[in-house]
Amino acid sequence: MITTASDRYIIETYREYVGLKLHFNGTKFNYKDPNQLTRLKVDQLLNRSDHRWFVELANIYRNKPQERFDFLLSQFKHDQNAWIGDFFCNTAYKIHNDRMKIINSFDYYIKSDVNSIIDKYKDNKSLKQILAINNDRPIVYKDLNITSEMISILDFLFKFEDNTMNPLWSNTLFSCRRYMHFLPITSRGLGDIKNHLESNLIVTSEQEIEENTLDHLFN
């Protein structure tokens, strides 16, 4: 096959693909860069029946390693079992463009999500209530069209419970937890979000106070 991509870009594409697939399919491997997978060689790639797709992707993003990584990340964030042969269609490009729209205006979208949460629940729901799973999904996820980036941040800051019986939410939460690793946000930014939510949402609702009182009386 004629290619203008060097072996370096082709093998980096392969290693990123494998690394991100491992990252989104478990919790034991956290992907950082292609050098984590130096054991993967060109010969191993060429033994794959789908190796031509790696060459093609390397050509598309030749000399654009960050853009290549972003594209691969978009695919595995959307589907942890994504296959490279499906990356060259309009659906894959839309998945990537939709994610990058948020990433390229990250602060704006996160601020909008935080404001939406406060506007919806201020003075009527506690932080605990909007994050509670109750064997299904949190109401903040059901009620509002917030970004998966915001879900990742909420989970990182407050930790959603793992007691859901809803497989769709379970998959969404797992993906968001693994995605958090790549979000462009600092510890200070996370702290600001946490303080803003905690200072604008009631700590404990009247319903929770009543329930806690009854629990105390009958225990």
What is the gist of this entry?
The protein has 219 residues and is mostly helical. 62% of the residues lie in helices and 0% in strands.
Shape: elongated
Q: Give the strand content.
A: under 5%
Q: Kindly provide the radius of gyration, computed on alpha-carbon positions and rounded to a whole number of angstroms.
A: 21 Å
Write the H/E string, N to C.
Answer: HHHHHHHHHHHH
| Proportion in helices | 55-70%
Quickly give the structural class: mainly alpha
- First-last Cα distance: 74 Å
- CATH-derived architecture of the largest domain: Orthogonal Bundle
CATH level-3 fold name of the largest domain: Annexin V, domain 1
Largest pleated sheet: none
How many domains, in number, for the residues?
2
Stretches with pLDDT under 50, minimum 5 residues: none
Question: Which terms summarize this structure?
Answer:
219 residues, single chain, Annexin V, domain 1, mainly alpha
Describe what you observe in this structure:
By secondary structure, the protein is mainly alpha-helical. The protein folds into two domains: 7-103, no CATH class; 106-217, Annexin V, domain 1, CATH 1.10.220. The chain is built from twelve helices and no strands. It has helices at residues 7-23, 42-46, 51-60, 65-78, 90-103, 106-121, 127-131, 139-143, 148-158, 167-179, 187-200, 206-217. The longest helix has 17 residues, at 7-23. The N and C termini lie far apart (74 Å). The relative contact order is 0.10.
Note the topology:
Blueprint: H1 7-23, H2 42-46, H3 51-60, H4 65-78, H5 90-103, H6 106-121, H7 127-131, H8 139-143, H9 148-158, H10 167-179, H11 187-200, H12 206-217
Helix pairs in contact: 1-3, 1-4, 4-5, 6-11, 9-10
